[in-house]
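Following up on my earlier thread - several people asked me to post the actual chain instead of describing it. Fair enough. Here it is, all 139 residues.
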Amino acid sequence: MVGMEKKKLSDLFKKKEEAKETAKKPVAKKPVRKAPVKKAAPKSSLSDAGADVKKFTEKLDAKKKKATEVMHSKTHQDLINAAYKAAEQLKIAPWVLLRAAEWGHFTDNRGKKYDGPVIDDIDGLDAAQKAALKKAVGL
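Reply from S.P.:
Thanks for posting it. Predicted structure:
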């Protein structure tokens, strides 16, 4: 720095100070669009919640009653056929479904009306098997 002129040094310091000032200047921010505020629905009372639960349970009971009627209108042979269709859809052997549903004895009396539980109440079946059987039966 021995050979530098004063003017060049002062110019150098001015440039640095100008750079600092421009960096400190706040940049105008674009306004953020806010989503419209939705008004909350009025809170329902406990009696309303109880009525909703009652409607829901009534709907479930009606579905179960319909499923029971449909299942009990089927013969053992109808359910064997449904198991074959469901097994084809699931790409498994039909006997896997028949045994899991505890329907292995249906071949003994194919014409007998079914008197067992509805498909949803059979513990040996997983969710996919239940869904496939219900579709094959028509539920």
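The chain has a mean pLDDT of 80. That should answer part of your original question.
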